[in-house]
Amino acid sequence: MSLWRLSEIVRTVPNSPLSLAASVLSVSFLSLYILRSRPRRTSKVAQERERVLILGATSGVGRTIAHKYASRGAYVCIVGRREAKIGEVVQECKELSSQGGFEDRILGVRGDCGNVEDMVKLREALQKAWNGLDTLVVTAGVSALQPLMTVAGVEMSPKDTVGSQATPEGIQHAVNAATAALNGNFLGPYIAAITFVPLLSYTSQSPSIMLLSSVAAVIPAPTRTLYASTKSASLLLYQALAIEHPSIAFTFVLPGTIEGDFRASAVDNPLGSSVTRIHEADPNKHGLKRDTVAARCIRAIDSGEKAVFAPLYFRAGHILYWLWPSYIEWRARVKYNFSTS
């Protein structure tokens, strides 16, 4: 379909928020179709020769991505902070790799993405073992689940004329929570980019970076102030890097809630409480399946896609936030069972 025909479709759609969102989404579908008609990345980097580094591979989607790359014969480096978990995933991946007739393709390295020394040692290990890198997958991160005033120990109600104020201890507690969220969701990806972008550029015929972000990075939600803002920061960082390094294919995957125990990594328990209050529905009953998200991530990397929303209707939600913000804000309050009354 020609660009002229696309413009005609958009021009003839009635001018309302919903219809505008629908038209933009239609163009997105067509653009995706055109993108998928391009040669796949695997024509330059064969699956059985691809060298893949996965940061945050010991749990969740990262672990499932490691399984899938191992199953198709790739060289896979498992990175996490827990030595025992690394050993488990390495063994799982070795078994999957050997089933396809591939041996000695799985590495396990203990490392914290937010630690410079760990990342430099990891880079040296990859250079020694594989002489380079083709694909960097960044899935590591931490969750945050509370309204910001709750983190600071402030109880607020619109019915109060004189409510409580944040104490110095409460403010410092909120600052500490923000620092932990920044370390996990921004500084980790930041250090990883600085460490591995040159290695990818110099040693791969088709270098690629995939950042597992979140739809919360582009659609704000209550109880996700710290999480959304730090995930948004790393997303924008990598989007800017994509412009600075056009030889590297950057892919950003923005899923909704995923099944699993990711909430256990929350860094924003309220002041004076060790109990995490959960606002939304159980992700293990209502969240996206890890296998589905992992498969979508790898397909996006292979196809060279830029931004991937999962499920796809979140793309319409992103557009609607700018066209009809009050509706999206209401839907966010419903999803997270949030009320100001």
UniProtKB/TrEMBL annotation:
GO terms for cellular component: membrane. The chain crosses the membrane at residues 16-35. Putative oxidoreductase. The keyword Transmembrane helix applies. Belongs to the short-chain dehydrogenases/reductases (SDR) family. This is NAD(P)-binding protein. It comes from the Eukaryota. PANTHER family: DEHYDROGENASE/REDUCTASE SDR FAMILY MEMBER 7B (PTHR44196), DEHYDROGENASE_REDUCTASE SDR FAMILY MEMBER 7B (PTHR44196:SF1). It holds the Pfam family adh_short. GO terms for molecular function: oxidoreductase activity. Keywords: Membrane, NADP, Oxidoreductase, Transmembrane, Transmembrane helix.
